[in-house]
Amino acid sequence: MRAIKDEMRAFKDEMGAFKDEMGAFKDEMGAFKDEMGAFKDEMGAFKDEVNEDRKRINRQWGEIANKMGTLVEDIVAPNIGGIAERYFGCKDVEYFAVRVKKRNTKNRGKTREFDVIVECNDMVIVNETKSSPKIDYINEFIDVLKEIYDYFPNYEGKKLLPIFSSLYLPDDVIAYLATNRIYAMAMKDDTMDLVNFEDIQGKV
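and the corresponding structure tokens:
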């Protein structure tokens, strides 16, 4: 009986020690849970920050893309007046406008922006500018030229002088423009210039 009593006391002591260990373990698990909660909150905040950074970066890229899209136009537009005078004898400009938005008078649902419009004497210069010249863009320009007087009925009867501009135009693009009697304007030396004027004059 004494031996059993001693064993029971020892077992009771072991159970007490086990209980203390379980209590310590429970405290550690509680601390771990709190740490995980804090980590979860930090990750949530980090995710929100990343989303905001991504939105900000996308917005900045959009602004840069828009600026790049108008940068070439900003370079081309100031050269149109000199081109008009040098090649077409336009000394008295009646109307000069950049980024003109016009509604089609025959189809009120169609609206288009024209990069540069110059009216001078009996002629009208219509300029289309692209940062990346492509044949598809030229074809679209050709389609627009077919209905140019639907956008500008007051210009009907005036000679139309279409110009397609970019900082650089490959030879095949220049040739394609000449074939369609569209003047090609690109960077030449240190200024913008018509690079297929003679070719078109030879076709007239």
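(Above: one complete record from the training split.) DSSP finds five helices and six strands in the chain.
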